[in-house]
Design a protein that fits this description.
The chain is α/β, with parallel strands linked by helices and about 140 residues long. The protein contains 4 helices and 8 strands; from the N terminus they run βαβαββαβββαβ. Helix content is about 25%, strand content about 20%. Helix 3 crosses helix 4.
Length: about 140
């Protein structure tokens, strides 16, 4: 099975802080499935490192007050393009991210407060029928 995956979960240093967040169990997952890495923030044209960003409703704003919504939407479109090209039915994404968060994201106040919601890419993938899971839900992926 082909799975779209946040590149930072594979150990790629593409997060806003220039680091990665390699997730436990990914090596075993790669032995059973074909993983398609991507970072919607990088694909949207944002540099690494970059100022932290959070969703504020439909907008995405960084901690400097600059709107980066367009870059997040561009990156989400590229994620969808990859998922369709590789026929991915599942996406395993970085939790709480303004791009990849699934079910819970930061509230846009830059205070560490979490609210129900999805990142821009996670929302678009889900709207197009792709099952989106966070890294803590790795166990929910089918064995196929």
């Amino acid at each position: 099975m082909k799975i779209l995956i946040s590149a930072c979960l594979l150990g790629v240093a593409c997060r806003y802080d220039g680091k990665s967040k390699q997730a436990a169990g990914i090596r075993e997952l790669a032995e059973r499935h074909q993983l398609i890495p991507f970072c919607p923030e990088c694909y949207g044209g944002l540099p690494t490192p970059r100022p932290a960003s959070e969703r504020q409703g439909e907008r995405v704003v960084n901690c400097l007050g600059e709107e980066v919504t367009q870059q997040y939407h561009r990156g989400a479109q590229e994620a969808l393009r990859l998922a369709r090209f590789f026929d991915c039915r599942y996406a395993l994404l970085k939790e709480r991210s303004p791009a990849c968060g699934s079910g819970q994201i930061y509230d846009g106040s830059f205070t560490g407060t979490l609210i129900p919601g999805d990142g821009v890419a996670a929302q678009l993938l889900r709207e197009h029928g792709i099952t989106v899971l966070g890294e803590s839900q790795l166990h929910l992926l089918p064995e196929e």
